[in-house]
Write a structure and sequence with these properties.
3 helices, globular, mainly alpha
Length: 97
């Protein structure tokens, strides 16, 4: 579990932009609802386990019967880096010091 939907009514395609946006949105919303941070983590773990390739880059889309392994800096890598950075920032704020 943790896969964000690109379309509200079907699972595929699984899209790196939608995934990154889900992580960032949940992390930002955690300012108002601390439970949202757990959802951001769930999506991040899902993305790392299912959308990350062996070389560390994130694939662009997972379709029902095939994968689009494009490694576009703007459409995949940059948005995930930003989202994961935002998640780490919010996770560090919740750790007691």
């Amino acid at each position: 579990k943790g896969a964000p939907k690109f379309y509200y009514n079907r699972l595929h395609p699984l899209d790196i932009q939608a995934t990154a946006q889900a992580i960032e949105s949940f992390a930002r919303y955690s300012l108002y609802d601390p439970d949202a941070l757990a959802n951001a983590e769930k999506v991040a773990h899902w993305a790392i386990n299912h959308m990350r390739k062996e070389n560390g880059a994130f694939r662009y889309r997972i379709h029902k019967h095939w994968n689009n392994n494009l490694e576009a800096i703007h459409w995949g890598q940059g948005t995930m880096l930003s989202a994961l950075g935002y998640l780490i920032y919010h996770l560090q704020k919740t750790v007691p010091r």
